[in-house]
């Protein structure tokens, strides 16, 4: 399998979010979501620039803005 790819990006106008990923990236995202559900907690996904390794930092949408940190929170 190739390198993981997973980015969260805002469109040019900032009104829409996009998630870009390959199979490995989406599998890791599903694992993070499952962990949050199973622990009733939260998780942080970050790019290497922000000290993480969960998100890649090469944006996919030409005019988009990359999001460096995504926090996943479970609410009851």
Structural class: alpha+beta
Oligomer class: single chain
The major sheet is characterized as: 3 strands, antiparallel
In N-to-C order, the SSE pattern is EEHEEE
Beta fraction:
25-35%
What global shape is seen? globular
Number of helices: 1
Low-confidence stretches: none
Instruction: Give average pLDDT, whole number.
Output: 95
Number of strands: 5
- How much helicity do the residues have? 10-25%
Query: How far apart lie the N and C ends?
Result: 37 Å
In what order do the strands lie side by side in the largest sheet? Answer: 2-1-4
- Radius of gyration (CA) equals 13 Å
Can you give a write-up of this model?
- With 76 residues, this protein is α+β, with helices and mostly antiparallel strands.
- The chain is built from one helix and five strands; from the N terminus they run ββαβββ.
- It has one helix at 23-39, and strands at 6-10, 17-21, 42-46, 65-67, 69-73.
- The strands form two sheets. Strands 2-1-4 form a three-stranded antiparallel beta sheet, with helices on one face. Strands 3-5 form a two-stranded antiparallel ribbon.
- β1 and β2 (17-21) form a beta hairpin.
- The mean pLDDT is 95.
Give a concise summary.
The protein is α+β, with helices and mostly antiparallel strands. The protein has one helix at 23-39, and strands spanning 6-10, 17-21, 42-46, 65-67, 69-73.
Features:
alpha+beta, globular, 76 residues, 3-stranded antiparallel β-sheet
């Amino acid at each position: 399998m190739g390198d993981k790819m997973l980015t969260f990006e805002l469109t040019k106008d900032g009104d829409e979010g996009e998630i870009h990923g390959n199979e490995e990236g989406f599998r890791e995202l599903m694992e993070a979501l499952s962990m949050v559900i199973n622990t009733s907690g939260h998780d942080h996904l970050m790019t290497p620039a922000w000290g993480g390794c969960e998100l890649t930092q090469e944006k996919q949408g030409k005019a988009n803005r990359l999001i460096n940190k995504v926090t996943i929170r479970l609410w009851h």
